[in-house]
């Protein structure tokens, strides 16, 4: 019985270090609180930011100490040096008088 507890403690301690929520990321609950919206609507509210790559969304496996189980937690972070740039390549629109080269 004493040996099992020793091994359980080792495993539990390793899980706490391996499966922890990363610093600099916010849980979906924290983001919902700051946006004053329900948890279910966070993705739709942040959709333009995620598409523009100014906000990153990721799912992490986290160890829950109270239950002793691994759970999946959704997190968000604001990209470093994020600017509001379009996702795709810049569109070049021809101006009046420009010669347009057609491909054959």
What is the tally of helical segments?
A: 3
The total of beta strands comes to: 3
Mean pLDDT: 84
State the end-to-end distance.
Answer: 80 Å
Structure, described:
With 104 residues, the protein is an alpha+beta fold. 34% of the residues lie in helices and 21% in strands. It has a 3-stranded antiparallel β-sheet.
Provide the fold topology.
Blueprint: H1 2-18, E1 26-27, H2 28-35, H3 42-51, E2 55-64, E3 69-78
Antiparallel strand pairs: 1-3, 2-3
Compose a concise summary of this entry:
The protein is 34% helix and 21% strand. It is an alpha+beta fold. The chain is elongated.
What brief labels describe this structure?
three-stranded antiparallel beta sheet, 21% strand, 104 residues, elongated, alpha+beta, 3 strands
